[in-house]
Amino acid sequence: MFDMVIIGAGMAGSVLAERFAAQGKKILLVERRRHIAGNCYDEIDDNGILIHKYGPHLFHTDDVDVWNYLSRFTDWQVYHHHTKVFIDGKPVPLPFNFNTLHEVFPKSLADKLETALLSNYEYGKKVPILELKQSPDKDLRFLADFIYEKIFLHYTEKQWDLPPEKISGAVTARVPVFIGRDDRYFNDRFQALPKHGYTTLVKNILDNKNIKLLMNTDFNEVTELRDGEIFLFGQKFDGRLIYTGQLDELFGKKFGELPYRSVNMKFETINAEDFQEAPIINYPNNYDFVRITEFKKIHPVKTDRTTILREYPQKYISGENEPYYPIFTDEARTAYEKYSAELAKYKNITAVGRLAEYRYYDIDDIVKRALEVFDALNE
Ligand code: UDP
């Protein structure tokens, strides 16, 4: 009856379902949650504001194929994101750039640091903070230490509950110094939000007669793996299984649990038109939360109330909260490799996505990855 089973109706699973459905394949798409779109899921709340249930998701890409592909399913609202970071009692622009320099240091020092940055790095470059820390220039090392201490260290400790040296370079590279005055959080060519939200975008992606969506259903209720073979509703299944969930769950966690970091998302209604001066303000220090998002600054709407979200990082406990971020320690990688070796025994299973590949994918990266997997499976 079905040519393919896809587990998970997040971005990866939905794009792959659409691509194969467009070839005429019959797809069974199985989703555990009561909604589609995975962690991109958004909805209009009681205040009439579009909120992102699993934390702020801001689309940006340099990849024209990803942009063109998604543009078939949504119109866009141009949106260039700005984040501020609360240090020494006030919010200043992030990534740390020349504007930030002048907001936190007296003019003479800011000028000196600006000159040092310009003579060491190309204008318009992003320099990871850990790289700046190695600079032979003592003024730049001073700047790196300042940013490390005020922006990076305590945020990272709260977010990951790990010392910074145990965290992968892929994460730490996300805190750069920007050589220039561009205050935007991203510099990509395309920066925009789906005009009617991510949920509507994914709904449009899945609007295909060849896709049968089974909601509220755990993959264990429909599929079973035994000795290199896949069973669907108890019958041997020879089609492909695309799995986008946690890889440890696919194999009954037999090599132990893969660690994730979770976040307690606390939404609050504020009885005022405005709450803060930027869509997102990060709080590296002093508080238990890491950042506050004000959603009407992302999706503008005229209301006399505003919805904010405070994010409190927490331990991931299976079945109790959501697995947001894979924790990239060496131990976790070793465990992941064991699951990968197990996966390799099943020729007809492909694991894709943030959970299944245990990778920190941005939205555009995951769409690109899904399109690549589609091409590879067609070869
Ligand atoms: N980070 C930080 N200070 C900040 C923002 C980010 O130290 O003000 C570090 C922190 O380790 C975080 C990582 O950079 O986990 C990635 O942050 P980003 O906001 O890019 O990631 P998101 O949580 O939105 O995926």
Structure in words:
The chain is an alpha+beta fold. Among the domains are: 4-36 and 206-257 and 327-377, Rossmann fold (3-Layer(aba) Sandwich), CATH 3.40.50; 83-178, no CATH class. It is 31% helix and 24% strand. It is built from 12 helices and 22 strands. It has a 7-stranded mixed beta sheet with strand order 8-7-18-19-20-17-21. Strands 12-2-1-16-22 form a 5-stranded parallel beta sheet, with helices on one face. Strand 18 and strand 19 form a beta hairpin. Helix 1 packs parallel to helix 12 (363-378) and helix 3 runs antiparallel to helix 4. The longest helix is centred in the middle third of the chain and has 23 residues, at 138-160. The protein is globular. The model has no long low-confidence stretch (mean pLDDT 96). The structure holds uridine-5'-diphosphate. Uridine-5'-diphosphate binds next to helix 6.
Keywords:
single chain, 379 residues, alpha+beta, Rossmann fold, seven-stranded mixed sheet, five-stranded parallel sheet, 12 helices, 22 strands, 31% helix, globular, binds uridine-5'-diphosphate
Structural class estimated from helices and strands: alpha+beta
Radius of gyration of CA atoms, rounded to a whole number: 22 Å
- Counting DSSP H or I runs of 4 or more residues, the number of helices is 12
Q: What is the CATH domain class of the domain at 4-36 and 206-257 and 327-377?
A: Alpha Beta
Query: Architecture of the domain at 4-36 and 206-257 and 327-377 in CATH?
Result: 3-Layer(aba) Sandwich
The count of DSSP E runs of length 2 or more, i.e. the number of strands, is: 22
**CATH level 4 superfamily of the domain at 4-36 and 206-257 and 327-377:** NAD(P)-binding Rossmann-like Domain
Overall helicity: 25-40%
